[in-house]
Amino acid sequence: MPDPNPAAMEFLLTRRSRPAKTLGLPVPDRAELMRILTAASRSPDHGKLEPWRFVVLQGAALRRLGEHARARATALGLEAEQADKGAQQFETGQLAIAVIEVHKASDKIPALEQTYAVGGVCLALLNAALASGWGANWLSGWPSHDRGFMSAALELDAHERIAGFIHIGTETSAPPDRPRPDLDRIVTWQDS
Ligand SMILES: Cc1cc2nc3c(=O)[nH]c(=O)nc-3n(C[C@H](O)[C@H](O)[C@H](O)COP(=O)(O)O)c2cc1C
């Protein structure tokens, strides 16, 4: 017989992100973040390769990433609007966790499965923050795909890349929910 957890199911059925730009102070302290990161790391991981790590970014560290994003935008010749889009999450954010995909050499586990696992960690991190009562938002943006930014701002090695920045903070406004997928369009049933 199933052993339901109605509170967990209700959370999953109603969970939603809060836009990063609406997140304010306070933010979780180190002890609470360790609990949230522990929950995030309790994620499916084929072959137990642990192909991820976290960089917790706050205050001056976030502003420094903003400066790196501006410098890369200039080096890449991006328009001002693009530069702003890339830099603003670091210039205005209070707390963000960079989830780093750390590719592990393996004869058995394809790289794509490691990428899927890290995506799962990002969602688990988002959900752990939301379940703890914080607002949270998973952002990427062009800097997260720019090798120059990855090297200069976070000193990532060639086998590492940014899976996402999970912003966490206090919700200051409650935007309406976004439309959700129509299950009738995406579910097929096969039983014969
Ligand atoms: C890999 C990934 C990257 C994303 N990057 C951005 C981003 O850079 N900017 C943005 O506005 N939304 C981005 N989003 C979408 C936000 O996380 C958005 O708030 C989310 O889709 C809302 O979903 P939820 O309410 O179900 O949590 C990204 C989502 C994913 C999965």
Task: Explain what this protein looks like in three dimensions.
With 192 residues, this protein is of the alpha+beta class. It has one domain: 3-Layer(aba) Sandwich (NADH Oxidase). The protein contains 7 helices and 5 strands, in the order αβαβααβαβαβα. Strands 1, 2, 3, 4 and 5 form a 5-stranded antiparallel sheet that branches. Flavin mononucleotide binds next to strand 4.
Q: How would you describe this structure in keywords?
A:
binds flavin mononucleotide, 44% helix, 192 residues, alpha+beta, single chain, 5-stranded antiparallel beta sheet, NADH Oxidase, 5 strands
Please tally the β strands and state the result.
Answer: 5
List the bound ligands. Answer: flavin mononucleotide
Which residues form runs of ≥5 with pLDDT under 50?
A: none
Q: What can be said about the biggest beta sheet?
A: 5 strands, antiparallel
Average predicted local confidence, pLDDT: 98
Shape by Cα distribution? globular
- Oligomeric category: single chain
User: So, CATH architecture?
Assistant: 3-Layer(aba) Sandwich
Number of helices: 7
CATH topology: NADH Oxidase
* Structural class by helix and strand composition: alpha+beta
- Give the helices and strands as they follow along the chain: HEHEHHEHEHEH
CATH superfamily caption? NADH Oxidase
Report the top-level CATH class: Alpha Beta
Query: Into how many domains do the coordinates divide?
Result: 1
The helix fraction, in percent, is 40-55%
Q: C-alpha Rg, in Å?
A: 18 Å
**Relative strand content:** 15-25%
**Kindly, what is the distance between the CA atoms of the first and last residues, rounded to a whole number of angstroms?**
24 Å
